[in-house]
UniProtKB/TrEMBL annotation:
Compositional bias annotation for Basic and acidic residues: 570-581
Entry's Gene Ontology cellular component terms: cytosol
Ranges for region Disordered: 68-120, 359-379, 570-596
Protein name in the entry: 6-phosphofructo-2-kinase
Annotated Pfam families: 6PF2K, His_Phos_1
EC number: 2.7.1.105
InterPro entries, per the entry: 6Pfruct_kin, 6Phosfructo_kin, His_Pase_superF_clade-1, His_PPase_superfam, P-loop_NTPase, PG/BPGM_mutase_AS
UniProtKB keywords: ATP-binding, Nucleotide-binding, Transferase
Highest rank taxon of the organism: Eukaryota
Length: 596
C-alpha cells in the first residue's frame, strides 16, 4: 500500500486512485433500504473509503409541503424557495391557535400531530413552524405539484452528493425510493457529465409479507409520524405505499439500455441478481450484501486471558497464559454458558414485545400478494409464528493461531461449541519490534516509536511482515463478511489490535479512533445486530467474585490519550488526538432512528 496516499481503496488490484462510486438505492418504502444503506456505509467506511449517505426523505421533510414552496427554474438546477406569503399565513394561523412546542423543531406552533390525532387528520398533522409531515396524498403520482417537488428534492440531494464527491468523497449513497424509470433516467443522465464516477443501482425487493408488515408497523415510529397515533400513521403509510406501488417500476431493460450496473437484493440477500458488475468496489458491495441476515445472534469479542508476555509488558510473541489468564479462561467458559441461556430468554421476551406491538395495530394483515400488503383490511390477522425470531442452537468460538487465545478457550465443552483457530485473527505483527516492551522500542527505535504515535492507523512496523492497523483491516475483511453471513452466535477470542478493529466495524467507530480505543484485558463486548445498528453490551471480569459484571456500555469504549514520549514538541497529530477524545459515538447514536 502506498505510504503517501495509504487509503485502502488506493492502488494495486483494488481500484485506481480516482475511482468514485455512486450507489443509488431503489425500492418501495418499507423494503429495508435504510437498513442496507446504513450497513453498507459502515462497512465501506471501515474499509477506509470516504463514504456518505444522502437521504432524500430527510430533505423532503425539511422542504415542507408543496404549497409552501415555489419551484423555481426547471430541470436539475432549480432550488426550492419557501414562499413569503405562506410564512405570513402560518404566522397568522399561529396567533389564533394554542402554541405548543413541536417535537421536531422545538418551536412553539400549532400542531395537530398529537397522540389524539386520528385517521383523516394526517393532512393537518404538520407543525406549522417546521412543516415536517407529509400525508399519503403528497405521494400520489397524480398530485403534480407534490410530484414535481419530490423530483426536485431528489435531484437537489443528488447535486449535493456530486459536490461532495468532487470535494474528495469516494462513495456516495443516494438513499431514496428512486422507484420510477423517469427518476432513474434523470439520475443516469445527470451522471453522464461526471468523469470517473461509476454508478451502481441497488434495488431492495421484499416478497415476505410478514417482514413487510413488520416494517410498516415500524414506520409508525418514523420522523414523518412523530406524535401521531400509530394506527392513524399506519393507515396513512399504507395509503402512501399504494401510491408508490402505482408508479413503481423495478429496474430492468430500461436501465440495461444505458449499460449501467445494478444488483437486486431479494428478501435480505436470500436471492441476489447482479447485472453488468464490472468495478472491483462494486463487486465487493454485491458480495457483502449477499451475506446479510436478520437472525437473532450475538457476536462476542474478548481478548485472551493475561499471557506471560502481558505480565511483563512485552508486545507480540507467542507465550501461554499466566495464572491470572488461566482463571479468566475458566470464568469465561462459565460466563458464555450462562449467556447462551440468557440470550434465548431475551429473544423470547423480544418476541413477546414484538407481538404486542404488532397486535396494537388494527390494519396489519395477511395477503397472498406480497406487493399489495398496503391494501390489507383490518380484520385479517398476521402470522405471528413466522415473525418470531428464533435463536439458532449452534455456537462457534473463533481464536487466533497463537497460544494465548487457544489456551483461553480450553475450558469450553467441545460438544457444545465448535472451535476454530483462524490465522487472520492473529495479533498485529510488530516486525522488528516483536517481543519488546514499549519502553525498549522508545529507546532503541525512537523515530519509529514517534512515527507510530503520530499516525498509528497507517504506521507499519519495520521489518519483514510488520503490519499497520490499515493492513489489519484488510486481513479481517473476509472475517467480517463471514460474521455477517453466519446465522448463529460467535465468540471471538483475540488480541487488542484485533478487538479494536472488529469493534470499530460493529460499532461504526471511525478508523481515526480505532487504534486508540482503550480495550483492557478482562472485558467481553457483545454486539447484537438490530434493525437500526448493533446493540452493544459490555461485561468486565471481577477477580474478587471470579465472575463478570455488566457495565455501562455508553462509557465502555474510551479513547486513550496517546503520549508522545520522545519529543516534547507538540505535534499537530497529538493535539488532534486530544480533540478526538470523547468523540466516540454512543451506542444510542450508533443504533440510529428509523428513516424513510
Ligand atoms: O500488548 C498486547 C498487544 O496485543 C501487543 O501484542 C500488540 O502489539 C499491542 O497490544 C497492540 O496495541 P497497540 O496497537 O496499542 O500497540
Amino acid at each position: 500500500m502506498c505510504r503517501e496516499c495509504p487509503r485502502l481503496g488506493h492502488s494495486d488490484a483494488r481500484t485506481d486512485s480516482d475511482h468514485k462510486l455512486v450507489v443509488v438505492m431503489v425500492g418501495l418504502p418499507a423494503r429495508g433500504k435504510s437498513y442496507i444503506v446504513k450497513k453498507l456505509k459502515r462497512y465501506l467506511s471501515w474499509l477506509g473509503f470516504q463514504t456518505k449517505i444522502f437521504n432524500v426523505g430527510d430533505r423532503r421533510r425539511l422542504a415542507g409541503s408543496a404549497d409552501d414552496y415555489e419551484v423555481s427554474g426547471t430541470g436539475t438546477t432549480t432550488r426550492l424557495e419557501r414562499t413569503k406569503s405562506n410564512s405570513g399565513k402560518t404566522a397568522m394561523h399561529n396567533q389564533q391557535q394554542q402554541q405548543q412546542p413541536c417535537a421536531d423543531c422545538n418551536k412553539p406552533g400549532t400542531q395537530q400531530h398529537t397522540s389524539t390525532a386520528r385517521q383523516g387528520d394526517m393532512q393537518a398533522a404538520s407543525c406549522t413552524q417546521c412543516d415536517t409531515r407529509h400525508s399519503s396524498t403528497f405521494f400520489d403520482p397524480d398530485n403534480k405539484k407534490a410530484k414535481q417537488l419530490r423530483e426536485q428534492v431528489a435531484m437537489e440531494v443528488f447535486e449535493d452528493l456530486l459536490r461532495w464527491l468532487q470535494a474528495g468523497g469516494q462513495i456516495a449513497i443516494h438513499d431514496a425510493t428512486n422507484s420510477t424509470i423517469e427518476r432513474r433516467s434523470a439520475l443516469i443522465n445527470r451522471l453522464r457529465s461526471e468523469t470517473d464516477v461509476n454508478l451502481l443501482f441497488v434495488e431492495s425487493i421484499c416478497t415476505d409479507k410478514n417482514i413487510i408488515n413488520r416494517n410498516i408497523r415500524l414506520k409508525t415510529q418514523s420522523p414523518d409520524y412523530v406524535g401521531i397515533d400509530p394506527d392513524v400513521a399506519e393507515a396513512d403509510f399504507r395509503a402512501r405505499l399504494r401510491n408508490y406501488e402505482r408508479a413503481y417500476r423495478p429496474i430492468g431493460t430500461a436501465e440495461e439500455k444505458y449499460d449501467v450496473q445494478y444488483c437486486k437484493i431479494i428478501d435480505v440477500g436470500k436471492k441476489v441478481i447482479a447485472y453488468n458488475i464490472q468495478g472491483f468496489l462494486e463487486s465487493q458491495v454485491v458480495f457483502y450484501l449477499m451475506n446479510m441476515n436478520l437472525d437473532p445472534r450475538v457476536i462476542y469479542i474478548t481478548r485472551h486471558g493475561e499471557s506471560e508476555d502481558n505480565s511483563v509488558g512485552r508486545i507480540g510473541g507467542d507465550t501461554g497464559l499466566s495464572s491470572n489468564g488461566e482463571r479468566y479462561a475458566k470464568a469465561l467458559a462459565r460466563f458464555i454458558d450462562r449467556r447462551r441461556l440468557e440470550f434465548t430468554a431475551e429473544v423470547d421476551e423480544q418476541n413477546h414485545r414484538l407481538e404486542m406491538f404488532m397486535a396494537s395495530g388494527t390494519s396489519s394483515g395477511n395477503n397472498s400478494e406480497p406487493e399489495s400488503v398496503s391494501s390489507h383490511s383490518s380484520n385479517q390477522s398476521i402470522d405471528y409464528s413466522s415473525l418470531r425470531l428464533k435463536v439458532k442452537p449452534d455456537f462457534e468460538i473463533w481464536t487466533s493461531m497463537l497460544k494465548r487465545t487457544m489456551e483461553t478457550v480450553e475450558h469450553f465443552d467441545p460438544q457444545r461449541y465448535r472451535i476454530k483457530n483462524i490465522r487472520s485473527l492473529n495479533e498485529i505483527y510488530a516486525g522488528r519490534c516483536e517481543g519488546m516492551t514499549y519502553e525498549e522500542i522508545a529507546t532503541q527505535f525512537p523515530e519509529e516509536f514517534e512515527a507510530r504515535q503520530l499516525d498509528k492507523f497507517y504506521y507499519r512496523y519495520p521489518g519483514i511482515g510488520g503490519e499497520s492497523y490499515a493492513d489489519v483491516v484488510l486481513r479481517l475483511q473476509q472475517v467480517i463478511v463471514e460474521l455477517e453471513r453466519i446465522r448463529h452466535s460467535v465468540l471471538l477470542v483475540t488480541h487488542r489490535a484485533m478487538a479494536r478493529t472488529l469493534l470499530s466495524y460493529f460499532m461504526d467507530i471511525p478508523t481515526t479512533h480505532m487504534p486508540d480505543m482503550e480495550l483492557p484485558l478482562g472485558y467481553v463486548y457483545s454486539c447484537e445486530p438490530r434493525p437500526f445498528g448493533n446493540f452493544l453490551r459490555v461485561w468486565r471480569y471481577n477477580p474478587d467474585t471470579d465472575d463478570f459484571d455488566e457495565i455501562d456500555s455508553s462509557t465502555a469504549l474510551k479513547i486513550r490519550y496517546p503520549k508522545i514520549m520522545i519529543s516534547d514538541r507538540k505535534s499537530p497529530a497529538s493535539s488532534a488526538h486530544h480533540d478526538q477524545h470523547n468523540l466516540l459515538p454512543s451506542p444510542a447514536e450508533t443504533a440510529c432512528s428509523a428513516n424513510t
